[in-house]
Structures are given as structure tokens and as C-alpha cells.
Amino acid sequence: MYVSMKKMLNKANYGNYAIMAINCFNLESAYATITAAEELHAPIIIDLLMEHLQKHIPKEYVLPPVIKMAKDASVDVAINLDHGKSESYVRDSILDGFSSVMMDASEHSFEENIQITNEIVKLASKFNTSVEAEIGNMGAVAGDHFTQADMYTDPEKAIEFMERTDVTALAISFGSSHGIMPKDFVPVFDFNIIKKIKAGTHKPLVLHGGSGCGKDNIQKAIKCGINKVNVGSDVMKAQADSIFRSQQGNRDMEYVDLMNKTLDPAKEVVKYYIELSGSTNKAE
């Protein structure tokens, strides 16, 4: 069933577990993600990153078939625009049929972030579209631009932000970074940030950059109040590794078979994170 994030995240918030949001780049990864969720009877969020949609295949070609998958699914599926940096792009995405959007105005001033977010919430409410926002900043593994402590979310600012906006969920920064973590590297999380914001808002909170953060970090973050965990790099790496192995074994393999072999590895990673999040058998 195609739904917004609101109901599933509110339920996760009440039940102290998290919903997995998987960054999908193509139809194969979206199909694998939804199938994995169905097999574990778990609600799921498909994240479509604005940057991917702008640089690769435009959303008007990607979104309709993924919506079809969501509508046909036996579990609740939300499709969320991930890191929407442009207000106009986020507005268009609501009109185009996304059930959820992230208005990421975190690079703006605090007051501008509130103003921009409220404008999006106002429009989204007319379409029953849920809205995620972000306070603080996220770094990236690429170029060793990891998230630093001065980029972490200020709990007081986060609480004020949620009091002055009606967002469904808030992404916060407390130690994770986007990208594939180096071998044997596990980031250090500041769990007190989550606890303080949760205590002051009692609303769904989001962990971005979940790939490679480690089982203990993720489970403790959920226990402290995280209700949505974004993972993309680990799933895409599983697909890339599958292609590499297939090419090593048979360089003449047809492309359609090559892509088909990426489905099971992707599903296994998605299932791992669903079980880690505590959302198994939590579907309506």
C-alpha cells in the first residue's frame, strides 16, 4: 500500500523502534527493497535522492513505476524525496506524487530553515504528504569530510524548530556520515543529543548515513529515540560487489542477467537492517 511516512513513523515512535529508509537508485533496487520488506512483513520507506534524480534519470520517469510497486505491495510503502535542497524542486515533488518529502534547508540560517520548511509543510498538508526536515549538518566519507562535532545538532535549536514547525520527523546530526565507512572504522555517536531532543519533542527522529555505523550504535540510537534510519551506500555496495563477482566469473554475461543477480544481495542487506531496526512484522 502506498502511504506517507506519518502513520508508520508515529507508530514506530510509540513502539520505540525504527523504520528503514533505503536509498534506491534504480527500479531494481526499489523492487528488491520492497520485496525484502514484504518477506519480513515490515513497513518500508523508499528514499529517492534529489541529486540522483537531477544527475541521472529525472523523477518523472522514476517515480511512476516505483509508485506502482508501492501500491501493489502487501506492506505499507512510503516514497520520500531525500535531501530536497531546492524549495521549488520539493514543491514540484509534492505535486508529482511523492507521499513524503524532505525539505533540507539545513544549510540556511536557523530562521530561514524554519520559514522555508513551514511553506513546504503548508503545501504538503493539502496533499497528505509528510515532511522531514534537518537541523545540524552531515559530512561525508568521500574526501575524508566526516561529520565533525561542530556540525552536530544543537538539541535546544532542534526542540525550538519542532515547536515552530509541524514536520513529521526531524533528521539530526550526532556522529554518522554519508557514504561507505572505511574498513574496521566505527563512528562515535553522541547519544545524549538524541535523548535531549526526544525528551523535548516526543516526535520521530531520523538517523542519516546509517551505512557502516555498526549494530550497537544503531540499536542504541533507536533505543534513545531514532525512528527512521537511512541506509543507501551499503545496499549499493552489495549490488556493485555482485556485478564485480559476476564479471569476474563470466565477462560475457548479458546485462539483463547481470542486473538480475544484484537483487538477492540487495535484499539481504535490506533484510539485515530491517531486523536491526526492530520493524520486522510491524506492517499493518
TrEMBL record:
Task: Detail which positions bind Zn(2+) 1.
Answer: 83, 178, 208
The entry marks the following residues as binding Zn(2+) 2, namely 104, 134
Q: Which GO terms describe its biological process?
A: carbohydrate metabolic process
At the top level of its lineage, which domain of life is listed? Bacteria
State the free-text cofactor note.
Answer: Binds 2 Zn(2+) ions per subunit. One is catalytic and the other provides a structural contribution.
Active site location: 82
**Which keywords accompany this UniProt record?**
Metal-binding, Zinc
Query: Which GO molecular-function terms appear in the entry?
Result: aldehyde-lyase activity; zinc ion binding
Cofactor(s) for this UniProt protein: Zn(2+)
- Protein name in the entry: Class II fructose-bisphosphate aldolase
